[in-house]
Amino acid sequence: MDEFNLIDAFFARHQSRRRDVVIGIGDDGAVVQPAAEHELVIATDTMVEGVHFDSTTPPRALGHKIAAVNISDLAAMGAEPSWLTLALTLPRVDRDWLEEFSAGLFEIADYYHCALVGGDTTRGPLTLTVTAQGQLPKGKAISRGKAKPGDWIYVSGDLGDAGLGLAVSQQRVEVASRHLKRVYDKLHYPMPRVALGQALRGIASACIDVSDGLLADLGQILKQSNCAAQVQIDKLPLSLALTETLEAEDALRYALTSGDDYELCFTLPEQHRGQLETRIAHTAIKPVCIGQVVGGDKGKIRLRDGADEWQFAAAVQPGYNHFNDND
Ligand code: ADP
Ligand code: MG
């Protein structure tokens, strides 16, 4: 099977229903028509075998996840996902693998009405790269840099489950069988918080998706906004899978420092709390307030348990960093 048959068989046959795709797969470049008075948001993420996943990861999960993590970046900006391109580097052509991978990718792309409009296919070590483009009314992008002291800090859902899923898949931790599906789904099939991101337009002061761990990602908001924060560990949303599996301190360590959850972490000025509540009242979205932005040392996060300061017994790394010399 050559490159063109492969593209036809697994990627081009699936024609999107979007009418704003003027020219899709098959030409030198894709042509799309952004909506009037909108801006484009563009995000790219790569997953490399041996770095981001291992050879036991189901190909369907890889297809889902490489699309989901990119769409999650768009969600964190408040954008509506629209178009994807896929750069695929494969060690060999394996039809069963491609069947599953493309099914996983289109499942989530279709769910969010996002069209695959192009890509590139080469031979080499297994590497997946997606570029996602989304649209936003002009001036409505939610950046990381505008949080202010006094703003409330929220997360969109349970933290630490994807990290637990990874630990289970690497046989570092065992979970009860009733929790297996949940932790593997959170690791392999994250659902980007697209509806919430859009609901936050015009009211959140900053937003990020939690890919590297809450402390690391909230830290990015704080550094770029020149602020500090207090986080209430007693308010963190933790699943039963996490709390029934780990000791309390370990559960908190997973919730605060393990990556791949793809929940949104955002800051909200006091005067917009009612608007948030109104906008999400008729949805299943239940963001949880976990703390507050404060002045002080840029990027610093103080942990509190109720009214008391709280610290880990042992030092923790705030999150995952590919170029950390200490690794
Ligand atoms: P070019 O030589 O112009 O880069 P290619 O031969 O690489 O073109 O690709 C042919 C067409 O197939 C292009 O429209 C490209 O966008 C699309 N394409 C290639 N690989 C993929 C892929 N993995 N997924 C989706 N579209 C792809
Ligand atoms: Mg090419």
From TrEMBL:
Query: What pathway does this protein act in?
Result: Cofactor biosynthesis; thiamine diphosphate biosynthesis; thiamine diphosphate from thiamine phosphate: step 1/1
Question: Which BP terms from GO are recorded?
Answer: thiamine biosynthetic process; thiamine diphosphate biosynthetic process
Q: Does the keyword Zinc apply?
A: no
- Show the catalytic activity: thiamine phosphate + ATP = thiamine diphosphate + ADP
Question: Where, in this chain's numbering, is Mg(2+) 1 bound?
Answer: T44, D45, D120
Q: Which UniProt keywords apply?
A: ATP-binding, Kinase, Magnesium, Metal-binding, Nucleotide-binding, Thiamine biosynthesis, Transferase
* Residues binding Mg(2+) 2, per UniProt: D45, D73
Q: Specify which residues bind Mg(2+) 3 according to the UniProt entry for this protein.
A: D28, D73, D209
Q: Which family does it belong to?
A: Belongs to the thiamine-monophosphate kinase family.
State the name under which the record lists this protein: Thiamine-monophosphate kinase
From which organism does this entry originate?
Answer: Idiomarina tyrosinivorans
What gene does the UniProt entry assign to this protein?
thiL
